[in-house]
Amino acid sequence: MQWLRTALRLALLLGGQDLPHAFGQGWGAECSGVVSDLLDCGAGAGAGPADALGLLQMQQHRGVVEDKPCDKGATRDPRGEAGCPSNPTEKVSVVEASNTMEKVNVVEATNDSDATCNDGSPGVYYWSPAPRDGQPHSWLVFLQGGGWCWDAASCASRVGDLVSSAQYPSLQVNDMYGILGSLSPVRGFNRVYIRHCSSDAWMGDIGAKATSAGVNWRGARILRATLRHLVEARGLADGDFLLFGGASAGAWGAMVHLDALQPQGLVPAGVKLLGFLDSPYWLDTPAFQDLTQVEHRLPEQTKQVVLNMQNEAIVSGGGLCELDDVWKCAFGQYRLPMLKTPCMLFASQYDWFRLIIAQVASVTPSDCFPEPQCSYHDYADSGANATRQKLLVLPQVIAGTSGVYSSTCYDHAFGRSSTCSECWV
Predict the structure, then answer these.
(1) Number of Cβ within a 10 Å radius of residue 364
(2) Distance separating alpha carbons of residues 272 and 266, to the nearest angstrom
(3) CB 143 within 8 A of CB 196
(4) Which of 138, 261, 321, 411 has the smallest C-beta neighbourhood within 10 Å, fewest atoms?
């Protein structure tokens, strides 16, 4: 919880928000810049990342990386995410927020019959308005992750709520310490959580009959319809503040859409916009031991996504992204340096999703990052070093307009939940 408070504090500073309202008394505005830090998730986690960051680093206007290893004694999930305990003595705001969110049928609310999941069931978002003593002119829109599929075969392996909203509950109960929860630093905001049932990382808008893959990919449609509904029916308006982002596949989609939200009229031009991108950063590198199958190559998956979804206009932001190959506009290594909208980026150097996709090895609960005796140590270390180096030269970080929060822990997409068993969102 402490790391989330610190990271969101930095994000809201970027957005020029009033920290005492968001964090409660005791969470002052002493840091004036943006920062990149490697978080120690182990025995010292009770003190929180604020100690790890250090006041001097927090005041800098560019990223600083320190090589702080994970403590192998920390409690971990079988997938390897860090289980950093929350601090029971941390100060919290007096704002009382609900820990539940109401289900909204996007097709019914927006009268858009194409805003549907893979199986044709309606897209869904969950909604919790700002509490009475909260911040009614501040908003969080968070996109769910959960991977993607790129052709008929990969989509056939996805089942349940990954492809259908049929079993979504009428009320969602959040992890109270996650970004959507009742003890979140942004609990005073209007909170919106859009479920990912389209398997396209929010980049598709094509029906099953229009693509050779025979898959209904409508994530971009669901997102756009939801944003229109927030403006027309919920009151998102000029002068408001919007924290827009997601985790994992949700962050990939948020990255693609962020710069285009206002030029395309999805968000009013007078809204103050800040990105919250949790784990969208992938490197264009070979798979472990040069495996060539698409399932082990994120760049190849991205190429197939653009080819089969015919979504060049979406991933390029209507022409805002001009790269030699359109697929690169949907790939973190290439797209993130081009973003103009201020954002807070989260990127683990030993991202477990990247390593598992590359098929490096099985993981155990004690994994923090690969040990020297592991066969994949050099591969993982090389990726971590490249990630660290590239994060620090992102032009937005150098300019002080965006921030990076990075760790050497074996983590991935930990913004929605404070417990490791739900880290993959």
Answers:
(1) 10
(2) 13
(3) yes
(4) 321
Q: What is the CB neighbour count within 10 angstroms for residue 330?
A: 27
- Contact assessment for residue 198 and residue 204, using Cβ atoms and an 8 Å cutoff: yes
Tell me the per-residue pLDDT of 135-177, one tens digit each, with 9 for 90 and over.
Answer: 999 999 999 999 999 999 999 999 999 999 999 999 999 988 8
Written as one letter, the residue type at 247 is: A
In single-letter form, the type of residue at position 311 comes to N
**Packing angle, helices 219-229 and 249-258, rounded to 10:** 60
Q: Do 257 and 251 touch, CB atoms closer than 8 A?
A: no
Q: Residue 422: is it exposed, middle or buried by C-beta count within 10 angstroms (0-12/13-18/19+)?
A: middle
* Cβ atoms within 10 Å of 288's Cβ, excluding its own: 18
Measured between alpha carbons, how far is residue 77 from residues 38, 187, 364 in Å? 20, 26, 8
Mean pLDDT of the chain: 79
Contact 405/57 with Cβ under 8 angstroms?
Answer: no
| C-beta separation of 107 from 123 below 8 A | yes
- Burial of 71 by CB count in 10 Å (0-12 exposed, 13-18 middle, 19+ buried)? middle
DSSP at 422: G
Biggest CA-to-CA distance, the chain: 58
* pTM: predicted TM-score of the whole model, two decimal places: 0.82
What SS3 class is residue 275? strand
Phi, psi of 291 (to 5 degrees): -60, 140
Cα–Cα distance measured from residue 365 to residue 307, given in angstroms and rounded to the nearest whole number:
38
